[in-house]
Structures are given as C-alpha cells and as structure tokens.
Design a protein that fits this description.
Elements (H helix, E strand, L loop, with lengths): L10 E4 L3 H13 L6 E4 L5 H10 L2 E2 L11 E4 L6 H8 L8 E4 L6 H7 L5 E6 L9 E7 L5 H12 L2 E5 L6 H9 L1 H18 L4 H21 L5 H7 L6 H9 L5 H19 L2
Parallel strand pairs: 1-2, 1-4, 2-3, 4-5, 5-6, 7-8
Antiparallel strand pairs: 6-7
The chain binds NADP nicotinamide-adenine-dinucleotide phosphate (NAP).
NADP nicotinamide-adenine-dinucleotide phosphate (NAP) binds next to α1.
Length: 276
C-alpha cells in the first residue's frame, strides 16, 4: 500500500505542529531521507529538533536560501496563510506539488495567494493521523500530474488511509463525516457511559466499559475491512436478544440515523461558512 519510492526526494514542511509533525514521523518511518527535508516553523518543539538532528533535516534555514522543493506541505493554521504567503511564494517552483491540509482553504484560495502554484492537492485528514490511523480525503487541481498524485498519496498514506475525491466541493462533507467524526465517536462513548450509570453502574466502571467497547468495536471493523458495518452489526445481534432490544430504539425512524444526518448536515454547513 505505501510505496516509499513515490515519496518526493525534496520537501519543505511549513508548520510542524500536531499534524505536520505526525506526517513527518510517518514519512521518516516509510524511509524518506531526511537530508531532502526542510522544516519551517517559528517554534519547533524540542523532540522535533532531536528528530531533525537524527535524520539530517534542515530546520529554519535563513529565508531566501531554500530552493523550491518537489513537494511543499502546508500544515499551518488556515488563518496564518495570508500573512505567511509572501514568504511561501518563493518556495513554489514550476514543478512543485503544493499539498495543503489547511481546513477551509480552497484550491482557488491557495492559487490566489501562491499564483505560481499549478499543482495543488487539498487534503482533509483527521486526528487519528497521530497514531497512523487517520483517513484523508484529497482533491487535486487540474495541474497535478500522475507522478505528483502518486507522491501526494504516498505522503498522505504515512498518516493513514487516503480517499481521492472526484470533486473538491465534497471536502465540506468529508470534513463533516471524518474530519470532525472522531469527536462524535468520543461522544458516543460518553453517552454509553452515562446510560450505564443510569442503568445502575458506578460512573468509572461505566466509562471503562464504554471506552473499551468503542476501542474494540473499532478494531474489529479495522481488521475485517471487507465486511460491511451493517453485517458486523447483524452478526452480533441475536433475534429477540438484548442487542436487538437496544437497536430497536436506536434504529427507530426517529432514532440515531436522522439525528446523525442532522449533525453531519450542521457540520457540513459550518465547513462551508468557514471556507475562504
Ligand atoms: N489537527 C487536526 O485534527 C486537523 C485535521 C484536519 C486538518 N487540520 C489542519 O492542519 C493544519 C495544522 O493543524 P495542527 O492541529 O497541526 O495545528 P498546530 O499544531 O497549531 O500546527 C501549526 C504549526 O504551524 C506553525 N506556524 C505558524 N505560523 C507559521 C509560519 N508563518 N510558518 C511556518 N510555520 C508556522 C505553528 O507554530 P506556533 O504554534 O508557534 O504558531 C505550529 O507549530 C491546520 O490548517 C488545520 O486546519 C488539522
């Protein structure tokens, strides 16, 4: 699945915070040579500096000394782009792939700030990226070549699965499902724990049971990727049993599905409002 040979040989990482450093660790684990990597970040963390030293990565060289790389990864906060654009622009060469994970910044926004950028991939990862189990939706501008798309896939696969999107405007819905999704799952664990308390359990025990159940069910889905979630559910639901009694409530026409549809719709709308 990961093909290290398609990783770019020269790369500038702009913004080495939570996401940027998770990606960097993934690339190094895939075998990327640190000597081709440059990090630009105003306050790089101590552990990142150690990692950089270990792998021969250049950190914050004097501005004006960085040549345009094969790939420029934008992992700064979206609100930072405008102010940073004059410093970023000289890093974009004719053949530079610009890979942005900035939430809400469209390909058009990036082109406007970095007019020389022709090959732009806009990606939306999620927080399980920190443990290499993220999922990223990615959309490419028309100027992205097949090798550049392969390079972007390799870079993004370092933090988990990658889904290429036919249309950039699907990103708001991707944000609503997987970008924001981990929080829904954490909340599911909270709700199960609270319901366990109502059912008579001590709060700490209810929370341990709920957490471990969400973790374990997630792992089962991960290990059995070919089986649809609906079938996994059916497999553990005996007719007339306890699970069926709960699912009758959750799967009622006024149950979880319409609520989740409403929640994801609200997140998608907000993603649209924040874009630009
Ligand atoms: N975390 C997520 O789950 C998630 C999911 C999807 C997308 N994203 C996107 O990923 C991007 C990064 O998020 P994050 O959570 O990793 O944020 P973060 O931890 O705040 O990382 C951003 C990093 O960029 C640095 N920075 C600020 N201005 C800079 C500049 N002009 N040049 C270079 N570096 C600069 C920041 O330094 P200082 O801290 O010193 O300012 C910080 O280290 C955001 O655009 C976000 O929308 C994040």
């Amino acid at each position: 699945m990961n093909d290290a040979s398609t990783l770019p040989t020269t790369l500038v990482l702009l913004g080495a915070g939570k996401m940027g450093s998770a990606m960097l660790r993934g690339w190094l684990a895939l075998g990327m040579d640190g000597h081709g990597v440059t990090i630009v970040d105003p306050y790089p963390a101590d552990d990142l500096m150690e990692l950089a030293k270990e792998h021969g990565i250049l950190v914050n060289p004097p501005s004006g000394t960085i040549s345009p790389p094969e790939a420029l990864v934008l992992a700064i906060k979206p609100q930072t782009l405008e102010a940073a654009a004059p410093d970023i622009a000289p890093l974009v060469g004719a053949n530079t792939l610009v890979l942005s994970i900035m939430a809400g910044k469209t390909i058009a926004n990036i082109t406007q700030r970095l007019p020389k950028a022709k090959a732009i991939v806009r990606a939306m990862p999620n927080t399980p990226a920190a443990v290499g189990r993220g999922i990223t939706g990615a959309a490419a501008s028309a100027g992205v070549s097949a090798p550049q798309r392969a390079a972007a896939s390799a870079l993004l696969s370092a933090i988990g699965a990658v889904e290429w999107l036919d249309q950039e405007d699907w990103i708001d819905a991707v944000t609503a499902v997987s970008g924001s999704g981990p929080a829904y799952v954490f909340y599911l664990a909270e709700c199960m724990a609270k319901a366990g308390e109502v059912a008579g359990l001590p709060a700490d025990l209810a929370m341990r049971l709920a957490r471990a159940t969400v973790e374990g069910a997630g792992e089962l889905m991960f290990r059995d990727a070919a089986t649809p979630a609906s079938q996994l559910r059916v497999n553990v639901t005996s007719p007339g049993g306890t699970t069926a009694a709960a699912l009758d409530v959750l799967m009622d026409p006024n149950g979880l599905e319409p609520l989740m549809t409403k929640a994801i719709g609200a997140a998608k709308r907000r993603a649209g409002e924040l874009s630009g």
